[in-house]
Amino acid sequence: MPPSMTGKLDGGEPCVFVAGAAEASSITIEACSPDDRADLQRMADHALGVGFLEATRIAAQSGLVAKTGSKAVGLLVIESAGDVMSLPVIVVDAAYRRRGVGQLLGLAALSRHPDQEWISAAWISGAEIPADRLLRRIGFAPSHRVRDYWLEDSLRRGFTCPLCGHPCRCDAMIYRRHPDASGSR
Ligand SMILES: CC(C)(COP(=O)(O)OP(=O)(O)OC[C@H]1O[C@@H](n2cnc3c(N)ncnc32)[C@H](O)[C@@H]1OP(=O)(O)O)[C@@H](O)C(=O)NCCC(=O)NCCS
């Protein structure tokens, strides 16, 4: 029998996902609160680049936070983009990666808008797309590549990419998810 991982969506309903990460059983998924900002800021500065996710932006957006005890170890931002939902940011604390936390966040987001189409621009970091496997797992499929995806944004807001510096010249792979999609195994 495959190992299962359990979590709680905010509101307290328990949920069980069959996946390979028993350690994620102590993780809860909650709506982002001001208490989480310091942890989230540190995590985002390190993984996505200093200034990419300012405190004001975290506060203004609809975010889901993965927590262990009172420590925030993952963040997923949900935005509405016209008639589709967008997942512009997903990040997990480096010490908690590869334990199913990202997948737990992704499934929690989808469960809030189950009948909608989703879109996500995934960072192409050198030869890798760190979120590729995670997105496919929860039913997204790659659509097309966009060159210099964050260039204008990094010039306007002044953030520094952890891979290429400032301004950011990284490309993005656009992924889409139809409401009836099932994830890959
Ligand atoms: C991408 C990220 C959010 C994944 O979070 P995570 O909690 O480690 O993901 P999970 O443990 O839920 O893994 C989900 C799947 O992705 C795979 N995976 C996770 N990180 C991976 C990586 N860096 N490279 C390749 N595959 C990876 C896992 O093996 C798993 O697949 P499997 O079930 O077939 O084994 C995390 O690595 C991260 O924060 N990276 C830095 C920020 C980033 O690049 N964010 C995406 C920007 S678009």
Structural write-up:
This protein is of the alpha+beta class. The protein is 23% helix and 32% strand. It has 5 helices and 9 strands, in the order E-E-E-H-H-E-E-E-H-E-H-E-H-E. The strands form 2 sheets. Strands 3-4-5-6-7-9-8 form a 7-stranded mixed beta sheet, with helices on both faces. Strands 1-2 form a two-stranded antiparallel sheet. The protein is globular, with a radius of gyration of 16 Å. The two termini are 15 Å apart. The structure holds coenzyme A. Coenzyme A is lined by residues 20, 47-48, 90-92, 97-103, 122-123, 130-131, 133-134, 137.
- Outline: globular
Content-based structural category: alpha+beta
**Count of helical regions:** 5
The helicity comes to 10-25%
Strand fraction equals: 25-35%
What is the total domain count?
A: 1
Secondary structure: number of strands: 9
Terminal-residue CA separation: 15 Å
CATH architecture: 3-Layer(aba) Sandwich
Question: What small-molecule ligands were found?
Answer: coenzyme A
Determine and state the CATH class: Alpha Beta
Using the CA coordinates, give the radius of gyration.
16 Å
CATH topology: Aminopeptidase
| Residue-averaged pLDDT | 85
Main sheet attributes: strand count, strand direction, barrel closure: 7 strands, mixed
CATH superfamily: Gcn5-related N-acetyltransferase (GNAT)
In what order do the strands lie side by side in the largest sheet?
Answer: 3-4-5-6-7-9-8
